[in-house]
Design goal:
The chain is an alpha+beta fold and 132 residues long. The protein has a domain at 4-86 and 96-104. Helices cover 21% and strands 14% of the residues. It contains four helices and three strands; from the N terminus they run ααβββαα. One of its GO terms (biological process) is response to oxidative stress. Keywords: Ubiquinone. Residues 100-132 are annotated as: Disordered. This is NADH:ubiquinone oxidoreductase subunit.
Amino acid sequence: MGILANIFTWWNGATIGTALYTSRKGTKVGEDHQGNIYYEGGTDPNGLVRRWVIYNGNNDASRVPAEWHGWLHHTIEGTPESCLPPPRIWERDYTPNATGTPLAYRPSGALEKGGQRQKATGDYEAWSPDAS
């Protein structure tokens, strides 16, 4: 099922085209703590070296850590391990995007939370073009 999944799906790992391009022109640069692998090779129309990521699992751009995002967009030249300071103790770990899941934020008044909003406090006055 692995080969068929790569042929017919784009949301889970690399497609066949990306895998072929990576095997021909890609050079592995590094790997992050989630298992995503980063490559570079070839040049784009602007003359910059192409950089890309092959995700370990579902393709979700929010899974790229900030330091590797900077590398992908040519903000830093070397790998994040060689160019950036070590992470601070106050930095939080990655949390996946929870949109569309039961863990997503829902404010009071949302239908998923019963749909009951707080009563209006009366501090709102509607605008009228005749009011001066």
